[in-house]
């Protein structure tokens, strides 16, 4: 029965189309904006190492599980989970896992859109030559003044939300494949150009050392949680984005190979961004741990100094915007697919509804950088910090944990084997071992450690 199920939303034209779309979802602000500042805030090397290990032993197996569940269910994550649970004779409440994913996607997009708005603004700032020859201080001040102005942020946030919902309302497949196929390679080329620039700063080795020589005394329990959370965030896991894309995957495509390709592409972009940014930071005497503004305060400096910088800088922010766009689309696709399936809405109506709600919630993050910056939760988190923490560090890992439990323990071996179709038994068993034991244990250990329970148990 599962074999004959078809998605009412259509199918990718090939395995490559899926890889492109999933990479489009994975590669985004998470790689270029978030990874560098998290690495900077958490002391560099040790954070990067834990991040890489998380991608390999937690990220790839969960990505395979998500794609597998999606392809077998062929519906939005909520209905996929419901259908698959029924097929295995399990509780219908598994649909709530899909529901939690929809909620996480909505929460993430609400702040993602604000940062994407910054990117959009920087297309114009760079394009108009604002940063040409500017000092580190001037570039920093420009950023601080920009985020202090709610009206400007509002305009960019609104434009990005409209852009995203226009594509979603037309169906994710049209246009997305093409956009990713041509734009992503150019983004990588520009990152390489920046790496070339970084090599000439005289601080290249220092940057590499910061990123790759782990100093475990610099990392805390929170840092470890952040590294694992970042693996989920960057690979778009734990909320159904990859599951919904998996539901459009053609029957015969290899899930293992596709997932590994996506993970490699995603991780390479993040590492390249890090290699480009840290030498620039050290060359200008900047502090690597300065948080969310990091890339916006460093890359314009490089563009301001290199020949042709206005052109390359503008192009870079345009491509980053595209990367953010293709990720933003995947954040709402589970919600929109569900509204179409269960509420009988047209895609357009569903998109308008979800877009409007996300836009509204986004105002919380927008104001947290200016007029509400003094309002904090749990001591020191702004609204943005709290949303980011709740989604990337709690909801995505917890969602991934439940996906692993479902795919590894509850789904029949026959079903997962048939759907994954790895071909060799050792490969299947390796995957099963990872999702059954390693992934759940790693996620639980990190969550417990951070909530202090572990300390209490071992005391
Ligand atoms: N992976 C995206 C990024 O790195 C963000 C994202 C998270 C997209 C979760 C979809 C789901 O920018």
Key features?
0% strand, mainly alpha, 459 residues, Hydantoin permease, 19 helices, binds phenylalanine
Q: Radius of gyration in whole Å, from Cα?
A: 21 Å
Task: Please give the CATH class.
Answer: Mainly Alpha
Total of domains: 1
CATH domain fold name: Hydantoin permease
What is the helical fraction, as a range of percent?
Answer: over 70%
Bound small molecules, deduplicated: phenylalanine
Large-scale geometry:
globular
What portion of the residues fall into strands of 2 or more residues? under 5%
The topology string of helices and strands comes to HHHHHHHHHHHHHHHHHHH
Strand runs, count: 0
The parts where pLDDT drops under 50 for at least 5 residues are none
* SS-derived structural category: mainly alpha
Number of DSSP helices? 19
């Amino acid at each position: 029965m599962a074999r004959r199920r078809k998605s009412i939303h259509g199918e990718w034209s090939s395995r490559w189309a899926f890889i492109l779309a999933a990479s489009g979802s994975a590669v985004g602000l998470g790689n270029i904006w978030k990874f560098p500042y998290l690495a900077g805030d958490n002391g560099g090397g040790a954070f990067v190492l834990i991040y890489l290990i998380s991608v390999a032993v937690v990220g790839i197996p969960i990505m395979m599980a998500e794609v597998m569940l999606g392809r077998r269910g062929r519906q939005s994550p909520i209905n996929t989970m419901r259908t698959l649970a029924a097929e295995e004779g399990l509780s219908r409440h598994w649909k709530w896992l899909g529901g939690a994913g929809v909620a996480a996607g909505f929460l993430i997009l609400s702040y993602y859109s604000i940062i994407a708005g910054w990117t959009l603004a920087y297309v114009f700032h760079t394009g108009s030559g604002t940063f040409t020859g500017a000092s580190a201080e001037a570039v920093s001040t420009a950023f601080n003044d920009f985020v202090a102005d709610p009206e400007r942020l509002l305009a960019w946030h609104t434009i990005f939300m409209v852009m995203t919902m226009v594509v979603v309302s037309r169906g994710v497949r049209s246009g997305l494949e093409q956009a990713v196929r041509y734009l992503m390679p150019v983004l990588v080329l520009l990152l390489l150009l920046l790496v070339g620039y970084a090599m000439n700063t005289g601080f290249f080795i220092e940057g590499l050392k910061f990123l790759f020589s782990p100093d475990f005394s610099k990392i805390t329990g929170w840092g470890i949680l952040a590294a694992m959370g970042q693996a989920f965030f960057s690979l778009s896991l734990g909320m159904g984005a990859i599951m919904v894309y998996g539901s459009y995957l053609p029957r015969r495509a290899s899930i293992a190979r596709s997932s590994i390709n996506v993970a490699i592409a995603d991780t390479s972009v993040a590492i390249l961004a890090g290699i480009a940014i840290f030498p620039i930071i050290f060359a200008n005497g900047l502090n690597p741990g300065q948080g969310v503004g990091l890339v916006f305060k460093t890359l314009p400096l490089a563009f301001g100094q290199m020949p042709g910088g206005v052109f390359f800088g503008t192009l870079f922010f345009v491509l980053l915007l595209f990367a953010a766009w293709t990720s933003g689309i995947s954040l709402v696709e589970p919600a929109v697919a569900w509204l179409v399936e269960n509420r009988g809405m047209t895609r357009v109506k569903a998109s308008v509804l979800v877009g409007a709600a996300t836009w509204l919630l986004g105002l919380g993050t927008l104001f947290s950088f200016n007029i509400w910056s003094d309002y904090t939760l749990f001591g020191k988190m702004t609204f943005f910090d709290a949303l980011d923490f709740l989604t990337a560090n709690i909801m995505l890992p917890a969602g991934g944990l439940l996906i692993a439990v479902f795919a590894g323990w509850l789904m029949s071996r026959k079903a997962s084997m048939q759907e994954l179709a790895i071909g060799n038994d050792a490969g299947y068993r390796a995957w099963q071992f990872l999702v059954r034991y390693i992934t759940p244990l790693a996620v639980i250990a990190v969550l417990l450690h951070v909530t202090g329970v572990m300390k209490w148990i071992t005391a």
